[in-house]
Amino acid sequence: MATQPIHLPEDRYLDPDPATRKVAWHLYQRVRDLPLLCTHGHVDPRMFADPDYSFGTPTQLILIPDHYIFRMLYSQGVPLEKLAIPRRDGGPTETDHRAAWQVFADHYHLFRGTPTGAWLAHEFREVFGVQQRLSAETAQAVYDQIAERLATPEFRPRRLFERFNIEVMSTTDPAHSRLEHHQSLQRSGWKGRIIPTFRPDGVVNLDAPGWRRNLDLLSEASGTAVDSYPALIRALENRRAYFRSLGAVATDHAAVTPYTEELTPQEADSVFGRALRGEATPEDATRFTGHMLMESARMSIEDGLVMQLHPGSFRNHNPDLFAKFGPDMGADIPVATEYTRNLRPLLSKYGNDTRLTLILFMLDESALARELAPLAGHYPALRLGPPWWFHDSINGMTRFRQRVSETAGLYNTVGFNDDTRAFPSIPARHDLARRVDANWLAGLVARGIVALDEAEEMMHACAYDLAEAAYKLG
Amino acid sequence: MATQPIHLPEDRYLDPDPATRKVAWHLYQRVRDLPLLCTHGHVDPRMFADPDYSFGTPTQLILIPDHYIFRMLYSQGVPLEKLAIPRRDGGPTETDHRAAWQVFADHYHLFRGTPTGAWLAHEFREVFGVQQRLSAETAQAVYDQIAERLATPEFRPRRLFERFNIEVMSTTDPAHSRLEHHQSLQRSGWKGRIIPTFRPDGVVNLDAPGWRRNLDLLSEASGTAVDSYPALIRALENRRAYFRSLGAVATDHAAVTPYTEELTPQEADSVFGRALRGEATPEDATRFTGHMLMESARMSIEDGLVMQLHPGSFRNHNPDLFAKFGPDMGADIPVATEYTRNLRPLLSKYGNDTRLTLILFMLDESALARELAPLAGHYPALRLGPPWWFHDSINGMTRFRQRVSETAGLYNTVGFNDDTRAFPSIPARHDLARRVDANWLAGLVARGIVALDEAEEMMHACAYDLAEAAYKLG
Amino acid sequence: MATQPIHLPEDRYLDPDPATRKVAWHLYQRVRDLPLLCTHGHVDPRMFADPDYSFGTPTQLILIPDHYIFRMLYSQGVPLEKLAIPRRDGGPTETDHRAAWQVFADHYHLFRGTPTGAWLAHEFREVFGVQQRLSAETAQAVYDQIAERLATPEFRPRRLFERFNIEVMSTTDPAHSRLEHHQSLQRSGWKGRIIPTFRPDGVVNLDAPGWRRNLDLLSEASGTAVDSYPALIRALENRRAYFRSLGAVATDHAAVTPYTEELTPQEADSVFGRALRGEATPEDATRFTGHMLMESARMSIEDGLVMQLHPGSFRNHNPDLFAKFGPDMGADIPVATEYTRNLRPLLSKYGNDTRLTLILFMLDESALARELAPLAGHYPALRLGPPWWFHDSINGMTRFRQRVSETAGLYNTVGFNDDTRAFPSIPARHDLARRVDANWLAGLVARGIVALDEAEEMMHACAYDLAEAAYKLG
Q1: ipTM summary value
Q2: Which of A210, A471, C304, C398 has the most CB atoms around it within 10 Å of its CB?
Q3: Sign of dihedral through CA atoms A350, A353, A359, A365?
């Protein structure tokens, strides 16, 4: 096939109906240049703390850290070793980054119609100035162009951060983190606002990989020997205060289910004691996680940190792959998730408290119209996070709006999260989300459901106001 | 913001594609003036029995009884006390109805894109003649206009009933009801057809709040001391006959799950005995409810009452709110609902009997294409009720048609239910449903799936014929 | 009503938006005449083995074998006896095929907006040359026209097979089948490629109806007395080799759930022993089926047969109907289906093996975006089958693409299956699927998601390449 230009029409992702598209374009134009609020993500803060940080090769920057990309090739039989993915078991892997890039390019058609395909097209052309579509033929030329750009000062992380018009960017950090990069950033005098997020899963989920070691790290960081449940609570409170001192506005929690249950302090202490002795049962782990979600809500009411909950992922589904490559390799698979009954203990105790903001995420869309929208349309403390992970896509975001908005309204949602490790994909992700929201709102206008002035306000809310308010960034 | 007119375009809710919209408009025009069959609802019959009934203030008419409205404000942190919602625990609440209305108006943007917003726009403009959109600025002027209308004789309930072109309206009444308002209506000579619906949940669900007292009321009403299972059956049969004598055509049943199981008379009697002694277990309650659903089907086959089943709501999810304000406060949250296995005992015994009409409702859309459409597309006794509660919306009704019609066809559905307590919202609800159905059918025409003459017949069926046939109103 | 022509516009099922429709039409034109790969179906091979085979009456050909049709009439109260459906209990049934056809025609409006309605319209007009829409009035005339065509040599099965442009057609055959029709076909010199599919459910599902007899038939066919678990494995391997010798490329497996578990050979043998003695428990059956799915995957890796898994149907839900008419009467109802945890044992052991192709089907659409797309977007051995049974419809196929493609991409799917017993409906089914895929792809083009050249390749993949590759037909 002849070389093709990157396909990225100016009015992409908008409804083909001319009347709807016109309104969508109008709405999108009003927000396309608003600053980005990156309220939830996984970018490494080190790249900003170190003024000389270099992204490495195109393969290092784009392919190796992005499990959205390499899992798709893996699903079609491409071994991860061929993609230069490092093995944690020390086994051999491709070291020629051009060769790995070629394999990626050879399979680029797999991304047709996927969000990764859309993000890459935007990133290649708008961030790196590449014009040709990636393919077997263009692989090395595209590699050269990106490598050349990466060698220039304009492509240092801080310069891109400014060019991307990021107003604030949250990282995600374990409870024991010393946040040394956030500290250096604060000291550096650079204006970029990069703030930590407190994620205590590694110590409050008793079955977390490396739990024991995480606890030691927490003890060290907090200066509290975490040898009992009260000590754990003290250490967590200590760390939350430290995170807040470096600008944190939120916590983040993952669990297989959103099960909540309040244990008595005695019960909590005896479960924690069993865990310390290596005797905790799976039921102990479930109950303790459920209890610690309630404790986190209590702490949030006291210190004002917004609480985020991401349930429903069965992590590391593929044991052989996990043994060879570790976590975050594209082998986390969602499961059906129940919210109504699981969250009742927490919501009964804290759901009516307007000092709490609990943002719920989901990987099970069947819960959206059934459970999540009715819950968020009732409890003052609840908000719904944007469609997460697999659902962070044109259809996924459209379904989210269609299933949530009629019951919960727009104003019980919190704007967009890019949730990414792939720093140069951030503009692509926000731009796509703004287009999809513009398109949804244009559909409401074109069908006479809301007036244009209302849609304009809703558009601004989607792109900026809702995130600013929910995450208390104002 | 400047005052805006109410946004209610003539061709609202129709597809923006011009060809589709044209067909949709054509279909809608054919049914827009058909009389309304209000086959399932919760309007208080007293307002029609009393010729001098007055609706009270705009706040009393529109805000206080409508949990769709006040739960949305509550979800954004507005205390119900500020909305003049009465507390059952005797706590203080706003008594100035104008002040409560102002709070409602201040938050009116929350209803953008919601069915409540669409219904209110219609109700304000088409029923009350208000022209300006409700807002902080227009709140008191709108209040004045509505209050003025309510003071006129044209706004007495019977006059509105006639103006709304309601052919029949079903109320929902507990098994023990004396139906005194229905009786006075019959005696009054007024032509409006308002009929009761027999809802026995309060006595057949052993865990219903106030079960014991309900039983006493049933004993009194039926003249049968309900001190055993056979007496319960006799009392229910007695009341069904009484309801039928006042025009009832249907029964209504709610349960957390549609679980059915046939107990032997001995088992039923001993479970009922335990309940009378206050010793029933949760399992007893589940089994007894499941058994009584089967008994209700048996009675329906004998007396011809259409049976409606509304499962899947976890009632009173918020205990503090329940303690303060009681039930129906917007805190009923759906749960995932299984139909295939749960209904098998009932359907095995009665599903092939064409004398039975069992209308199933749902709050779990994932069951629509998976379970409900295949069940309704097979069993002669089954029909599917319209999308209920949270799903009674533009997207909800559209998804219902898209998920049900290909497997069950149109003719295993039963038209629209307004299911409302808010009497003046009835025209808005039927009008919206007719527009959504017109739009769905126009999509079938525009894509060449059905011919126009077929769509015209289907349109009439959606707006009138299906409800008339399913509820035996002809 | 006056007689109407069959409604079958040339550009049917395409989006009404003119720009989208134009692209859809272009894409459809590129594949409309490609040969059909009928990779999964239930057509009786006897009709091709016997050169003199006649289809019988229109009622015998179209109505009696098609539970999609007669279940819809049954759901509206038409007894199956009136439709000439044979009773297995020997009870009386209509014998006048014209009378049965009249009843079918009287209720033809029930199929408005259903896939059956679309297929019948195509079949009547394009296969049989009928012009008038079936109705009470046209019933006998249409019957005459079809009967007349069926009497001509052009309507012998082999001639239709050629006219339909079928390149390969898979049948579905029990493990014990002698495949005598496939053998005669091979010997006959006729060029049509009709190949068997190995379906061992009757012997590996211990609770299959007639299990004991199926086992005897397997013993006979394989020449191995299946009196132990090792003998069962030997017999199955023997039959798989035999099926492969007659062209088989695939196996097929049904189960209520996709539960998998590896038993030790000792456990497997003792469960099988209990089954032989009539002592197997329901749990034994579940575990054995789960184990045999793993064994089938192991055999597939060894012999190259593609493995298909169809879970999630509660068979024979209506016991009275089953007693009178037997299985496949429209009374199989789907249940919610869990894949993530159930398939983990199988995928942990074989999911990374590129020699295995496991094609998963579903009747529970809520699993598509949640579980199936993430699984298929990761494991090299997995592919997703097309929407099955109730979901093999315009909306069902559209939802499938919208829910699967963004996460799994197009290339982890396997094209279309007609999955039918109704041979003359095959062109209608493939044509409809090609139109729906063209429409989906046109939507991607019209919204700027993929370029036209990409859509053209994807279109060819949907219509031909994916099925050819997945089923190893090249």
Answers
A1: 0.98
A2: A471
A3: positive
